[in-house]
Design a protein that fits this description.
The complex is a heterodimer of chains A (about 280) and B (about 270). With about 280 residues, chain A is of the alpha/beta class. Chain A has eleven helices and ten strands. In chain A, the strands form two sheets. Chain A has a six-stranded mixed beta sheet, sandwiched between helices. With about 270 residues, chain B is mainly alpha-helical. In chain B, strands 1-2 form a two-stranded antiparallel sheet. The chains are: A alpha/beta (about 280), B mainly alpha (about 270). Chains A and B meet through helix 2, helix 3, helix 4 and helix 5 of A and helix 8 and helix 9 of B.
């Protein structure tokens, strides 16, 4: 498979208040395949958000290289094409909507990249439909729920027709219902062929990806399929990452002597394994 | 939550030809109308101004009481202007109440001023009542565009207004949240005299400013992620277009202005 994001020995440091350099990313290298669904997890301060912002040139590597769809993010002339092709949805749904009318907000991105008016209209309508918000087109964002606002934010990125969509903890500020809505849309987008990168600290959400990258102290601590990652439960505990409920329960049952397979991911799989015991 | 239900500006939603006019037409029209009110110096010319505004109001389907609401804050000013004009205009004495003298000219001028002020307020209210804030912003941006050559940041100003409109409810929410948090910890925003109340606002304003800065930072990041780079090369989903309706409105307005100016210079009425 062809890779669409390519990070080579990326290093990044912030200067803290005392003027000392705090290393956030310490030599990260990774390839992300086109059309894949990758989850990035890690404890607070592991550098996952900084890594995400490096993917569409919101931050530039201090050393190393990032290529988005073959474009070097440190090349100034490619900046806007990079940001169009790698869209980003942020954590706080309130702080990323620009306009007081839903459809105008979705039009904001396409307007910025100079799409002709008739085409903007089409893109806005289809983006609204993709997130199931068509009937809210003329409403004011502040009247919507958190989950709905976040769906508008996703539609706003979608209207720019990106190849990659990066979600930076998109559900962190939502209630369980909003969280479910957003995860369903993310899976739909992946099914529709978009490359999805989901940064999260919910292991349940990461379980839906094809690949999980675990970051710790600015380095890649683990990289594999959800099954592979969850089998390393001791290491995850060390990083204060909680296993999904079903995985954790299966682990404890196994520890208690039940004969369960080691690769259980979901509650359904656990239920099935439990039923087929004896 | 009650704080969320506030309507922004004072837009009165309705389907009318006035609502559908291009915002640019309405902004220029309002300015022209306001200027015309200062040219008017006879009652018959005022009758024409009233007729024009009355027709616009009737066509717009905005109820009169909505427009009259705009008078409330300036009612005292209007009454004061009337009284001053009534008693302090020199001229032919009609009536004298001790030191106060009412003259014929005084009555005229008081009536003129009152009419002028009421029409000014009604006229400008019609603009905001029939135009959505966002359309007003777009209209202003387009009208200011020619002045970009002399360094007026038209697009930036319009973008600022758009963002301000979008974030007023968000900041209201934020204020509400901070207020509740401070009240829970014993802050008192209700009692005390003016000075004490003003002091009580400090623990509210400081966190509000901090959060406004945080929001601004987040928003700037999100806007850049969506390829925002100022007004250059930007297209619009709904580009503003003048229609026949705008032509007709401009024609009526031009005729009106012509009559007002002629009547003043030639003393027709």
């Amino acid at each position: 498979m062809e890779s669409i994001i390519s990070v080579k020995d990326l290093r990044f440091a912030y200067e803290d208040e005392e003027g000392e350099l705090q290393t956030v990313l310490d030599g990260v290298s990774l390839e992300i395949e086109k059309g894949s669904f990758v989850a990035m997890v890690g404890p607070n301060g592991s550098g996952k958000s900084t890594l995400a912002k490096n993917l569409n040139a919101l931050l530039l590597p201090q050393s190393g290289k990032v290529y988005a769809d073959g474009m070097d993010t440190s090349d100034d002339s490619l900046l806007w094409e990079i940001r169009r092709s790698v869209g980003m949805v942020f954590q706080n749904p309130d702080n990323q909507l620009v306009s007081a009318v839903v459809e105008d907000d979705i039009a904001f991105g396409p307007e910025n990249i100079g799409v002709p008016p008739e085409e903007i209209r089409q893109r806005v309508d289809s983006a609204l439909e993709a997130v199931g918000m068509s009937r809210f087109a003329k409403q004011a964002p502040h009247m919507l729920s958190g989950g709905q606002k976040q769906r508008i934010a996703i539609a706003g990125v979608l209207a720019m027709q990106p190849d990659v969509m990066v979600f930076d903890e998109p559900t962190a500020m939502l209630d369980p219902r909003g969280r479910g809505e957003i995860m369903a849309i993310i899976e739909q987008l992946h099914d529709a062929g978009k490359t999805v990168i989901l940064i999260t600290h919910f292991m349940e959400e990461a379980a839906r990806a094809d690949r999980i990258i675990v970051l710790k102290d600015g380095k890649i601590a683990a990289d594999g399929t959800p099954r592979e990652i969850y089998s390393m439960s001791e290491q995850l505990h060390g990083m204060k990452l909680e296993l999904p409920f079903a995985v954790e329960l299966a682990r404890r049952l196994r520890a208690g002597g039940l004969d369960l397979p080691a690769d259980i991911l979901s509650e359904e799989e656990l239920a099935e394994a439990l039923c087929s015991l004896k | 939550m009650a704080i969320k239900d506030i309507t922004l500006g004072q837009y009165y939603p309705a389907e009318s030809p006035v609502h559908r006019l291009d915002p640019r037409t309405k902004i220029v029209g309002t300015v022209v109308y306001m200027v015309s009110l200062f040219c008017v110096n006879s009652f018959s010319a005022f009758a024409l101004s009233i007729l024009l505004l009355g027709t616009v109001i009737a066509v717009s389907k905005v109820p009169l009481r909505f427009i009259a609401k705009g008078l409330k804050p300036v009612l005292i000013l209007i009454i004061l202007t009337m009284l001053i004009n009534l008693f302090l205009t020199p001229g032919e004495l009609l009536l004298s109440l001790g030191p106060l003298k009412v003259t014929e000219e005084g009555i005229y001028r008081a009536a003129f001023m009152a009419l002028r002020l009421v029409l000014l307020i009604f006229g400008s209210s019609m603009l905001t009542l029939t135009t959505k804030p966002i359309q007003l912003t777009d209209g202003m941006e387009a009208l200011m565009k020619p002045f970009e050559k002399i360094g007026l940041p038209a697009h930036e100003l319009a973008m600022m207004m758009t963002i301000a409109l979008r974030f007023i409810p968000t900041l209201m929410d934020e204020t509400d949240k901070i207020m509740k948090a401070q009240t829970a910890r014993g802050a008192d925003f209700e009692s005390g005299n003016f000075k004490e109340k003003a002091k009580a606002l400090v623990p509210l304003l400081v966190p509000l400013f901090v959060s406004a800065f945080r929001i601004a930072g987040d928003l700037a990041m999100a806007m850049e992620a969506r390829c925002y780079r100022g007004g250059e090369g930007r297209t619009r989903m709904n580009p503003m277009r003048y229609s026949g309706r705008d032509g007709a409105a401009a024609l009526i307005l031009a005729l009106y202005l012509a009559v007002i100016i002629f009547s003043r210079t030639l003393g027709l009425f």
